[in-house]
Amino acid sequence: MEVQYIDWNNSIQILNKAYDAGLFVLIIGPKGTGKTSLVRDFAKNMNLDLESINFSLRTRESHLIGTKTLIEGTVRFDEGLLVKSMKEGNMLYLDEINSAEADVLLRLDEALDDRRQIVLKESTGEVVKAKEKWFVVATINPLTHSGTKELPPQILSRFPVRIRLEYPPENIELDIVKKHVSGNYESEIIQAIKLANTLRQAAAVEELFYSPSLRETIAFGKLLDKEVPPKEAANIVFGNVYTQWGNIEYQKVSDIITSMFGN
Ligand SMILES: Nc1ncnc2c1ncn2[C@@H]1O[C@H](COP(=O)(O)OP(=O)(O)O)[C@@H](O)[C@H]1O
Ligand SMILES: [Mg+2]
Hints:
Radius of gyration: 22 Å
Bound molecules: adenosine-5'-diphosphate, magnesium ion
Helix content: 40-55%
Order of helices and strands: HEHEHEEHEHEEEHEHHHHH
CATH class of the largest domain: Alpha Beta
Number of strands: 9
């Protein structure tokens, strides 16, 4: 099911202007705030072909540049997504770029600087120059997220347009959740969003270890669609995860859920 993206903070307009100006964009925000959905929606509306790389510690240079393969005695070079997007002038989406290792970032930096070109030292030494309309959008999670590293300043500077995407205001989160569910449980969903915001605030001041995202408030609504009672859905989606940090952590949240959804 393709859900219509709600552009509640005018991000699409900024992406449009950046695209027209040939400036690369960095989207900063916690997980589940709609970063990937925003980028996909923009690419779809603009009719741009989108290549996506989701970075982790295991992402190697070869994912970006390409790999040599030997087929029936001849060496072939399979282009990586970075090289492919440059050659074709497509849109490149670098998701969670701050999980990438330093050597990978260094290679990216080569392509992202003002010359917008890269030397294929791993194959023919060919210089690949990006097509005029090549467009790069990256995302990073705030540093509080485990596994994330600070993005080196020279990489940051390649993305001079920065969009902040936070958890939306309550009424907008309600509209978003309603796009994903079919039933009419407005008051229960509002209650779940209030719960999520309480947990987010506690996580922001490090009273809790985990901050629920829009994925959770959407999942809550979807469980109601499947006739799970609201309190049970709240425990399943919002409560149980805290067991990971022990019973005291879980009990704190469980008490909040009981106070909001009754016994
Ligand atoms: N503005 C929005 N409009 C519609 N759906 C949204 C919006 N923001 C978030 N969502 C939904 O929330 C979920 C998480 O969004 P996603 O784009 O994957 O977040 P991120 O990439 O920031 O982790 C998805 O199911 C997405 O459809
Ligand atoms: Mg994402």
